[in-house]
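call fold(seq) -> C-alpha cells
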Amino acid sequence: MKKWPIRWDLLLRYRMIEIVVLWEGRLTTNHLIQSFGIGRQQASKDINSYLADIAPGNLVYDKHLKGYKPNESFTPKLTSGHADEYLHILSRREDITVTFGDLDMGFEHTAMIRPVTRNIAPEVLRPLVQAIRDKKRVDICYTSLKDGEFVERIISPHTLVCTPLRWHVRAYCEYARDYRDFVLSRIHGIPDINDNAAHGKQEDTLWNTNAVIELTPDTRLSDKQKAVIEKDYGMINGTLRIPTNASLVHYLLIAYNIDIHMQKYNPQGQQIVVGNMDELMPYLAY
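ret:
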C-alpha cells in the first residue's frame, strides 16, 4: 500500500469492494453508489484506486457480467475472507431498510431471520458504557427473574456482552459479593454513576479463566449424517473447538442451540414457549 492509514470512509468502500466481489462474484459501481450515496465517477475512482494501491490484479473486468469478478489469484487485503463479513453487510442493509423503506442497496436477493430486539433505552446504556470506561460503580434498579421483584444493586461493570438474543453487562455485584451478569432490558430507570470501582475485570475469576467448548456430532447419527454435520460446522477430525472464557460458556451453548436446562426440565432455562404451536405445525411438516 502506498498510503496508510487509509481514510475511514474510503476503507469502508474498499472493504465493500472485496466482500461483494468475493461472495457475489460480480461488483459494479452501483454497489458503491447505492451503499454509500456517492456518484458514479467517485465509485469508479474507488475501484481503480483499490486496484492500483491496495490489491493490483485482484479484480478482472468481465464484459459479459458487465462488472468486475475476482481474479483466480484473488487474495483479500482489507478483509478476512470469512462469510461473516458478507452476512454483516446483509444485516446492515436489513437494519437500514427498516427505517428507510425505499433505500436500495443492491441486496434484494437475500432474506434474514432475526430475533426480536430487546428493549434497551439509550438512557440505560450510556451510563453503563461511561462507568466501564471510567471504572466507576453504578447504582441500578434491577428485576430478577427469580422473583420478579425490583431490587436496588450497586455494581461495578467491566464488559458489555452481546449474545444472539440479548445484551448483558458483566459486573461485580456488591450484594452478592461476586461477579454476575445483568440483562440490560431488566434494568429500570437511569443507572446512577457513583465513585471509583473497587473491583475490576482482573479480579473476575470466571472471566479470566480460559475454556474450550468441543462440539461433536451426536453419537446416535450415522457416519454419513455425522459427515454432514462435520462439514456444516467446519469440524476438524470430528470436533469443533471454540475457545472462550468460563463466564461465556453458557451463552455459547445456547447460541449453538445446546440448552442444558432443557435436560433438567428447568422452566427458567427455556423461559419462553410457543403458544400457537397447533397453528404452526402445518408449516413444520416437511
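The radius of gyration is 24 Å.
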